[in-house]
Amino acid sequence: MIMECHIPYAEARTYLVEWRSRIKLLVVPSHGFVWVVEGECPGLRGKVKVVRDFVPRLPPLDGPLTLPPWRWYFLRPQASGFPDMHRSK
Question: What residues does each domain of the chain span?
Fold first, then answer.
């Protein structure tokens, strides 16, 4: 499982300890956050990588931006610790 984590509240990251054996890669927004997450969940050491938030510089658009049709599946942990699966169309 590949996950992203950027929540600043430690109590909201407790699911990482339970899921550490299933997580193959955890993406966080900064090196400082790597230390926080690995400190809370040593079982994730070496699996946490940084992908910084960014805003790309785009050339001016001649018209509205259009996206191709696609399907994504999102996994969002709930307070109960069970995932809530969402599918966008």
Answer: 2-53+69-88
Strands, E, within the chain: which ranges? 2-4, 25-28, 48-50, 72-77, 83-88
Per residue of the chain (89 residues), give pLDDT as tens: 899 998 889 999 998 988 889 999 999 999 999 999 999 999 999 999 999 877 777 778 788 877 667 666 555 555 555 444 444 44
From CA 15, how far away is CA 23, in angstroms rounded?
11
61 near 38, Cβ under 8 Å?
no
Specify which residues 75 forms β-bridges with. Answer: 85
**Separation of alpha carbons 80 and 89, rounded Å:** 26
Is the Cβ–Cβ distance between 71 and 89 less than 8 Å? yes
- Gap between the Cα atoms of 13 and 37, Å rounded: 8
- Helix, strand, coil abundance in the chain, percent, nearest 5: 25, 25, 50
